[in-house]
Amino acid sequence: MSYNLLLDRLNNKEATIGVVGLGYVGLPLVLRFIEVGFKVIGFDIDKEKIDNILQGKSYIKHIDSNKLKVAVDNGSLMVKTDYAEASNADAILLCVPTPLNKYREPDLSFVIDTIEALLPYLKKQQLISLESTTYPGTTEEELKPRIETKGFKVGEDIFLVYSPEREDPANKAFCTQTIPKICGGTTDRCLQAGLSMYGQIVDTVVPVSSTKVAELTKLLENIHRAVNIGLVNEMKIVADNMGINIHEVISAAATKPFGFVPYYPGPGLGGHCIPIDPFYLTWKAREYGLHTRFIELAGEINSMMPKWVIDKLTQALNEKAKSVRGSNILIMGLAYKKNIDDIRESPSVEIIDLLIKKGAIISYHDPYIAKFPHMRNHFFDLNSIQISSDCIKDFDAVIIVTAHDDIDYEMLQQNAKLIVDTRNIYPTNTKNVVQA
After folding, report:
1. Measuring CA to CA, how many Å separate 149 from each of 92, 118, 123, 146, 153?
2. Please, are residues 352 and 380 in contact by the beta-carbon 8 Å criterion?
3. Which one is catalytic: 95, 183, 190, 273?
4. What confidence tens digit (pLDDT) does each residue in 392-434 have?
5. pTM of the model
6. CATH topology of domain 264-435
7. Among candidates 263, 262, 303, 261, which has minimal Cα distance to 279?
8. Matching fold, domains 3-209 and 264-435
């Protein structure tokens, strides 16, 4: 197959698309490609995910199980745990995790292990796209040399691009189709292949001059949020000590029609991007002898917020002549943001860990997470409890960490002895609510 034939197959939706990693990024892409007429091969090393898809069951709350079932039944979607079928794909998208290791340094093991596992099945005139968030240089320094060890020349035989994911689970205002897609190519031909593919599934594709620009763009987007959240978290601590409600301040400041964008404080950062991405850039910057002080300071502030919440709880319990040790504490919400079932980097996990170490007895309620999942660094043998007015009265304190919509907050306030509110659910002062 020639380069022009690859472009024709992409433009005519005749290409077969391979997606590696069927999580919060990969699965929406799979369904979007199928929606516009492509055939897709999905790959994941997690056999449970593959089994669920084959049964037409979605394991992600906001993804419709029926769409999966129809795609499998009509042959549009094939799913595998091994990579042999990758040789039948015209394009392969890598949507695998890029976490941090225990030293808070980039962990590219999932990316590297995946590309090395794919090498035996790559073929000429194939498009490879990395979507995982990473530091500038990853595509050219880690993927390109490995691909070329198989005798392929990137830009002639294999076409390599970086196009960062911009998924925002449960955001009803934007979806895969409507979120503009950044794309940078290793060569001009690589870029054109990437634009041809992504142009079929998103309304707007934004080309940039290199994979490094695309990689840094993704980091800037999330570091911008992390820094501004760090600022408002610090402002929250200052305001709290002055007896001022920071949310009232933000609302007032947001009436300015120019020069101000509201960001909101919380119990810490969560999700697969904002708590992690700054460390990818600060690590890479050290290679150039640079110390990203501003970014690292924001990271320090955001990382201390779970402890600040615990301090507010401790102070409030002390005023009731109780200690954290031995207290029954209910955590409201495990997910990192409301109305989703994603627990990655959730501040709830850190808060639970800190409280257990202090001797508290922990329960949690989350309508989307029935059982605490096994995580890389944490596991607690906990199941979500059902809440009622009688149940709430048994707890010494309730900490609202994730403000899911389908929780009866009025019932909670009427029956709780103490509420530590990290999400401004109760903006006015009440005798049993402490803002944190």
Report:
1. 18, 12, 13, 5, 9
2. yes
3. 273
4. 999 999 999 999 999 999 999 999 999 999 999 998 777 899 9
5. 0.91
6. Rossmann fold (3.40.50)
7. 303
8. yes
Q: Which CATH class is domain 3-209?
A: alpha beta
| Contact assessment for residue 275 and residue 398, using Cβ atoms and an 8 Å cutoff | no
Q: What is the DSSP letter of 372?
A: P
Predicted local distance difference test score (pLDDT) of residue 171: 81
Burial class (CB in 10 A: 0-12, 13-18, 19+), 188: exposed
- Percent of the chain at pLDDT > 90 equals 88
In 292-360, which residue ranges form alpha helices assigned H by DSSP?
Answer: 293-318, 347-357
Q: Are 268 and 302 in contact (CB under 8 A)?
A: yes
Separation of alpha carbons 312 and 421, rounded Å: 10
Q: What tokens appear for 332 in the block?
A: 């409201």
Is the pLDDT reported for residue 354 higher than 80? yes
Count Cα neighbours of 27 within 13 Å in the Cβ-side half-sphere: 22
- Distances from the Cα of 5 to the Cα of 124, 256, 300, angstroms: 12, 53, 51
Provide mean pLDDT across the span 14-31: 96
Residue 61: band (very low, low, confident or very high) from pLDDT cuts 50, 70, 90: confident
Residue pointed to by tokens 């968030």 = 133
Residue 427: phi and psi, rounded to 5, are -70, -25
The reply to whether 273 belongs to the active site is: yes
pLDDT band for 270, please (50, 70, 90 cuts): confident
Q: Which residues of 389-418 are buried (b: 16+ CB within 10 A; e: fewer)?
A: eeebeebbbbbbbbbbeebebeebbebbbb
Structural domain spans, the chain:
3-209, 264-435
* DSSP assignments along 159-178, one per residue: EEEE------TT-TT--TTT
Residues 39-56: what's their mean pLDDT? 96
Residue 332 amino acid letter: M
The DSSP element (H or E) to which 129 belongs, if any, is strand 126-130
